[in-house]
Amino acid sequence: MNLLLLLALAALPEGLLFYASFEKDGQAAVAQGNPQLFSAASYKGNAPGQPGLAAAPNVALAPGAGRHGSGALRFKAKNENAVYFEAAKNVNFAAGTLSFWLRLDPNKDLAPGYCDPFQLTAKDYNNSAIWVDFTKDDRPRHFRLGVFGDLKTWNPKDLPPDTNPAFNNRLIVQKNPPFRADQWTHVVITHQGLGTPAGTASLYLNGALVGTAPKIPELFDWQPEKARLRLGVNYVGLLDDLMVFNRPLTPAEIKALSAN
């Protein structure tokens, strides 16, 4: 581990479980579980991937393209393959913070359709999952946080998402997000108590609170051994410095992390 990375780690808040800076082979610099970056043809069936990015031809490590001149993960064209880290032991499902940086112009760079730069789930976006996405039709494209427990619990009638109040009420939406192609934007998700009546989550952009979800009471079937930190679903752009903490960071800590 190089000196610059050691200094960066020393400046981070306490409770860091996982840190991927996308240097060299893409392996995480800090991991309580598996540090390996994986790829696969798709997420269907949660099929096991292979180490590295060979199964995701539109994704590559980008030396020198990161936030501080280090590496980053570049999604060169719409990514329809699976790119992920295993979540087991790298995530505290009871409470935590998910942090990463994106660099893109969503209104110019993204292909048509929804785009999820990040998902945490063992199943799908609407079934025991946390994610952020860019909407498909809005201009500017909205940026949203979605937090959904067991699908059959919150959506027993299997209603489609766009017209389902139970779906829309679980979203935090930033209608005019600050993403730009010439600068990095910091995304932070905090969560606690998911799977209990007091479950909730919050979204921050560039250190500022966008919003906090109302209480999310349904159960979460996380299946930690199958859960994945999914990266760049339909995404085009750069992603850097993926971090996972074992507790919700305070607003002051998030602001300081954003300025790091």
Measure the end-to-end span: 19 Å
pLDDT below 50 for ≥5 consecutive residues: which ranges? none
Figure out the total of helices: 5
Helix content: 10-25%
- Our Rg estimate from Cα atoms comes to 17 Å
Largest sheet: 8 strands, antiparallel
Number of strands: 16
Order of helix and strand elements from N to C terminus: HEEEEEEEHEEEHHEEEEEEH
Mean of pLDDT: 93
Percentage of β-strand residues: 35-45%
Principal-axis shape = globular
Structural class: mainly beta
Description:
The protein has 260 residues and is mainly beta. The protein is 11% helix and 36% strand. The chain has five helices and 16 strands. β13 and β14 form a beta hairpin. The protein starts with a helix and ends with a helix.
Outline the secondary-structure elements.
Elements lengths: L2 H8 L5 E5 L17 E3 L9 E2 L7 E4 L9 E4 L6 E5 L8 E9 L2 H4 L5 E10 L2 E8 L8 E6 L2 H4 L10 H4 L2 E4 L10 E8 L7 E6 L2 E5 L15 E6 L3 E9 L5 H8 L2
Antiparallel strand pairs: 1-16, 2-3, 2-6, 4-5, 5-16, 6-15, 7-12, 7-16, 8-9, 8-15, 9-10, 10-11, 12-13, 13-14
Write a concise keyword list for the protein shown above.
260 residues, 11% helix, mainly beta, 16 strands, 36% strand, 8-stranded antiparallel β-sheet, 5 helices
State the gist of this model.
With 260 residues, the chain is mainly beta. The chain contains 5 helices and 16 strands.
